[in-house]
Design a protein that fits this description.
Helices cover 3% and strands 47% of the residues. It is an all-beta fold and 413 residues long. The chain has 2 domains: 5-107 and 407-411, Immunoglobulin-like (Sandwich), CATH 2.60.40; 110-404, Beta-galactosidase, Chain A, domain 5 (Distorted Sandwich). A 9-stranded mixed beta sheet has the order 1-16-17-18-19-28-24-23-22, covered by helices on one side. It has a 5-stranded antiparallel beta sheet with strand order 5-4-8-2-29, with no helix packed on it. Strands 9-10-11-12 form a 4-stranded antiparallel beta sheet, with no helix packed on it. A hairpin with a 3-residue loop joins strand 9 and strand 10. The longest helix is centred in the C-terminal third of the chain and has 12 residues, at 393-404. The radius of gyration is 22 Å and the shape is globular.
Length: 413
């Protein structure tokens, strides 16, 4: 399988500048921010972004400090991370200069380790998550209908704890982080892509589109197919999906991951996604270490584990015990998603024979059905902040605000 890599720009100590300078400031706005990705649109600035001949500096009291940045895949601008704390109502100043760059790579390079079976997103050599391209068979003696490809597992915490689980005996069709639709209709016929034991449908990896690596983020774009088993003559694709998974370089103590799914149907009649408590969005089956005794939930609306199910939220923080203390994930919803703030499926503490294992999902069809029409594309966007220890409600709010409403970029004349 060919590895397609988008190249980047690196900033190092030795520069030769021309007189070309673009200056701009980043305005925090009304919210505190920390380790916040920022995009600077340079499409009308007449500066070449396809070669290694520009450098970025932050202008502070100590002078000009080099900043790692990365050219966007569409070559319209640059991404970088405003590191550290960025208080509300404050500003930070930057300069982008033309000049020759020499030297070696940044110390922490966001990269993708590719094998025949999987794609592993990493910060240097530290594992963040693994996307499974290979079809994974169920345990011996279990119906082969439970086989599946096209999902994320493992997801590691920064300390190396595995936070996801696949093929648990109580739900063999659960696969780490994934998002198949459940109750759907194709010309009035039921097709379930979630409950694999029904043998009505599945979702599978269908191809690698792109890999991006750099000092600011690494990213994979993969194609997935939602397969309808219901035709008498042959199986067919009911939904085509492009899944983008991006990991940001926000430091050694946390992972920040964007999960973007763009779906369309090739069926002339479209496909109806019926309202149901499971389906689509982004689903998460937690490690078996997280039980009713040590797994805790807080939503943006103040709901906890036993009161969150069926409610809506901008974000949901999940924390649980690990061998290193505690780890957690903040799941963030995006304002342009269909049912924002989206309803959730949250297993209460008495789930699964009172063991209290944990499942979470942002479920856009929880309360309202959704008709996907032929010729249209539908996008859902989420962000995960993965951490060890604890995350305060105030920090969760700040992280969501940075995702939903990024800082403003203002160019100076």
């Amino acid at each position: 399988m060919k590895k397609a890599v988008s190249f980047l720009l690196i900033f190092l100590p030795l520069f030769v500048f021309t007189k070309e300078v673009i200056t701009f400031k980043i305005i925090a706005g009304d919210y505190n921010r920390f380790d916040c990705p920022v995009f600077v649109n340079l499409s009308n600035k007449n500066i070449p972004l396809e070669t290694n001949n520009i450098t970025l500096f932050e202008i502070a009291g100590s002078g000009a400090v080099p900043v790692d940045f990365q050219v966007s895949n569409d070559k319209k601008g640059i991404w970088f991370v405003i590191s550290g704390t960025f208080p509300a109502h404050s500003e930070r100043n930057f300069e982008l200069k033309a000049g020759k760059v020499t030297g070696s790579k940044t110390a922490h390079f966001m990269n993708v380790k590719q094998s025949e079976e999987s794609l592993e997103l990493r910060r240097s050599k530290n594992k963040i998550l693994e996307y499974q391209m290979e079809t994974i068979m169920p345990p011996s003696g279990v119906d082969s209908a439970y086989q599946r490809s096209g999902f994320i597992h493992p997801l590691w915490s920064p300390a190396g704890e595995v936070l996801t689980r696949i093929q648990p005996p109580d739900h063999y069709h659960h696969y780490g982080i994934w998002g198949p639709w459940t109750k759907t209709q194709v010309n009035g016929r039921e097709v379930d892509f979630w409950n694999l034991k029904k043998k009505q449908g599945t979702v599978r990896f269908a191809g690698l589109t792109d890999i991006t690596e750099g000092p600011v983020f690494c990213e994979i774009k993969v194609q997935q197919e939602h397969i309808d088993f219901g035709l008498k003559t042959k199986n067919r694709v009911a939904i085509n999906e492009m899944l983008t998974v991006r990991a940001w370089n926000v430091g050694k103590d946390a992972w920040m991951i964007d999960y973007i799914t763009t779906q369309s149907t090739p069926l002339d009649s479209g496909i109806l996604l019926e309202a149901y408590r499971y389906g689509g969005g982004i689903g998460f089956r937690a490690t078996e270490k997280w039980t009713k005794d040590n797994c805790f939930v807080l939503t943006s609306e103040g709901k906890e584990r036993d009161s969150a199910d069926g409610t809506k939220a901008r974000w949901c923080r999940i924390e649980g015990a690990t061998s290193n203390g505690e780890s957690g994930i903040l799941f963030m919803d995006y304002p342009q998603n269909r049912e924002f703030p989206e309803p959730m499926r949250v297993w209460p503490s008495n789930s699964i024979d009172d063991k209290g294992y944990f499942f979470f999902e942002f479920c856009p069809i929880r309360h309202n059905s959704w008709k996907m029409e032929y010729g249209k594309k539908y996008e859902l966007r989420y962000r995960l902040f993965v951490f060890d220890g604890n995350l305060s409600k105030e920090d969760a709010d700040a992280l969501w605000q940075a995702f939903a409403y990024p800082p403003k970029v203002v160019f100076k004349e």
